């Protein structure tokens, strides 16, 4: 595929640093200390690209309007998990016709949540009649306090006299989940997640009235494949499904290409379990971005950035004065530009938390504020719409460390002694007999598709569809503009075949 990765000037490159992926950060590497000076002479910006895959540079547009397609966010009760009673439920974001004969259930990846898939789902149901999409929110989402966004969610312009979500969260008024009072999360691993997911899959099937395709992004793809191989009381998980769709993730070395192999040796697992037993029940990887030290700090910052960029994209950034020194631009920027600063690959962020969006405007507006210019496949307005929420969100606040351990061990995709010791029931991978779709970006350098082909070769998969776009970063498939989203287009083709009964 054509590579349209953002190009940067020599002076820009000299101001950035090399980042490691969030999976590398599991070993404790920190991302603090990013040196970004965004004054007139030192903007880390992306040069306009010339490939046909790019859109012409245009100023950031106003927030997009919600589609007419039915969209609901629904709770589904699940078995007790040892935590608060209010957490004994999961949620699904349902998009598309209620009478659809096929439901695509999508699982978000590490620190991901249901709103990862809203834009993709809209595109899919528009392209494939007879399909509804259900985006899965794990039970951990019940621990997040998003009420500060709810109070402000009716704003259509910059907040002034109304409640301010930045003050609610950054001044510490929200309800935080303290790891010390959350020992129950030590047991929130893959077995519980898959039991919860099965409740969703069975609800989607509607007693056999609908067919279910299960998919996911990143570690959500790993989760979907684990479900297919899982033993549910003697019944293989793949018996619930008519297809599998994995997006930039999976098993059997799917993540090896990013230079951070899974940590699944017995000694590594023992050490990680000991840390969880000692109270480190939440995965702290994403705190390495440098936006705060709590489990939820970074996720709050990103949602705040999305919220202000969505509601007042051209206005002077509300958050800029409150950014840590290492991340704060010197010159005033807009709300949209601040979101761009946090998500665009041109600023040196890791592949797995960045997109190809654009760059700061060359000149300030009449108020001395530099805005954002889209010249990539993922307009900042689409990122803002997804990140803003308020509910569901894009980022999961409290990711259980045990789930990270289990998903790493699940990479072997076999019923090993180590897997059994963790309660992983990966017994039916060889029997897998449903079609498989896999999509890879530049994130894995081809190993996502290699892993998917290994799954197919070691099973009874009737056929596989393997697509890639090395001009995409890990998050681009979730938010890219409809016309430039090769993941959505190729997945739609796969779903048409399933809906048509060829599966």
From TrEMBL:
Residues 1-46 form the signal peptide. This is Alpha/beta hydrolase. Keywords: Signal. The keyword Nucleotide-binding does not apply. It comes from Streptomyces graminofaciens. Residues 44-68 are annotated as: Disordered. It comes from the Bacteria. SUPFAM superfamilies: alpha/beta-Hydrolases.
């Amino acid at each position: 595929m054509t590579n349209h990765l953002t190009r940067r000037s020599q002076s820009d490159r000299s101001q950035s640093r090399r980042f490691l992926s969030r999976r590398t950060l599991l070993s404790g590497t920190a991302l603090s200390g990013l040196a970004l000076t965004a004054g007139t002479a030192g903007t880390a910006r992306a040069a306009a690209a010339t490939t046909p895959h790019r859109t012409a540079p245009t100023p950031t547009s106003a927030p997009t309007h919600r589609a007419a397609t039915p969209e609901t966010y629904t709770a589904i009760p699940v078995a007790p998990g040892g935590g608060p009673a209010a957490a004994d439920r999961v949620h699904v974001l349902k998009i598309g016709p209620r009478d659809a004969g096929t439901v695509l259930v999508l699982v978000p990846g590490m620190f991901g949540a249901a709103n990862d898939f809203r834009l993709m789902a809209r595109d899919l149901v528009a392209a494939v009649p007879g399909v509804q999409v259900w985006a899965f929110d794990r039970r951990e989402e019940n621990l997040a306090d998003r009420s500060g966004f709810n109070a402000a969610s009716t704003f259509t312009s910059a907040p002034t006299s109304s409640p301010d979500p930045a003050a609610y969260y950054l001044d510490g008024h929200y309800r935080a989940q303290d790891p010390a009072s959350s020992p129950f999360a030590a047991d929130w691993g893959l077995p519980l997640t898959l039991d919860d997911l099965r409740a969703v899959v069975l609800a989607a099937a509607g007693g056999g009235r609908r067919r279910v395709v299960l998919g996911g992004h990143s570690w959500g793809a790993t989760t979907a494949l684990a479900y297919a191989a899982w033993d549910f009381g003697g019944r293989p998980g793949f018996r619930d499904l008519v297809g599998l769709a994995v997006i930039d993730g999976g098993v059997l070395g799917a993540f090896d290409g990013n230079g951070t192999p899974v940590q699944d040796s017995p000694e590594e697992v023992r050490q990680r379990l000991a840390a969880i037993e000692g109270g480190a029940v939440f995965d702290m990887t994403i705190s390495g971005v440098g936006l705060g030290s709590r489990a939820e700090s970074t996720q709050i910052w990103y949602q705040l950035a999305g919220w202000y960029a969505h509601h007042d994209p051209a206005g002077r950034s509300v958050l800029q004065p409150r950014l840590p020194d290492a991340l704060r631009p010197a010159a005033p920027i807009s709300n949209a530009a601040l979101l761009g600063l946090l998500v665009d690959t041109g600023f040196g962020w890791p592949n797995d938390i960045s997109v190809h969006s654009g760059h700061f405007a060359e000149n300030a507006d009449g108020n001395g504020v530099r805005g954002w210019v889209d010249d990539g496949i993922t307009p900042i307005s689409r990122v803002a719409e997804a990140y803003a929420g308020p509910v569901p969100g894009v980022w999961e606040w409290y990711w259980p460390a045990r789930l990270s351990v289990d998903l790493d061990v699940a990479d072997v995709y076999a019923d090993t002694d180590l897997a059994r010791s963790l309660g992983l029931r990966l017994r039916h991978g060889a029997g897998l007999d449903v079609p498989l779709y896999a999509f890879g970006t530049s994130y894995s350098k081809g190993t996502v598709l290699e892993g998917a082909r290994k799954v197919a070769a070691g099973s009874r998969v009737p056929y596989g569809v393997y697509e890639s776009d090395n001009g995409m970063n890990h998050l681009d498939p979730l938010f890219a503009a409809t016309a430039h989203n090769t993941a959505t287009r190729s997945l739609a083709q796969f779903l048409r075949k399933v809906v048509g009964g060829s599966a």
